[in-house]
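[step 3/7] fold_predict: job queued, chain A
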Amino acid sequence: MKRLLAMIALTGAACLTACTPGGSPAPGPSDSTGASDSAETPGSAETPGSTEGTPSSAGASGVKDSCELFNSLYAEYAATAKEDADAFDDIYLRSDEAQATAPEEVSGLFSALGMLALDRSLGEAPSQESKDAIQDAFLASSGPCTAEGVTLKI
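[step 4/7] structure written:
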């Protein structure tokens, strides 16, 4: 099971590395005005802070909700005892779920957090690759989160 999770994390790291900020958008030459604004989808009805600890709390759809969810998941990651592999597995899974529903401009936060949590769940210190990924995702997502009134905390 741990090898499977490690493979998933490495694949996620490769995807995160390939999706650097500042790259050209995927649609290419067809530059329609309404197709690129996915951040305006309404957020979930629940407040991310009020559902902490539940697996369904990973379903944030707007930028603001995603930034707030990241802050709460990262705080949980930081507060988890280093030897609690099950808690880190849970954070990894919830980060993976959140990445699937988060807007593109902030989804890298959850991928990077998942990498950190996976390292810890395997009983290891966070790898340099995971540390670099969280720093890169933090820098790339700070602008969109700040624009929504949320300050990222790591």
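[step 5/7] annotate
The CA atoms of residues 83 and 126 lie 13 Å apart.
The helical segments are 2-18, 63-79, 85-101, 104-121, 128-147.
exit 0
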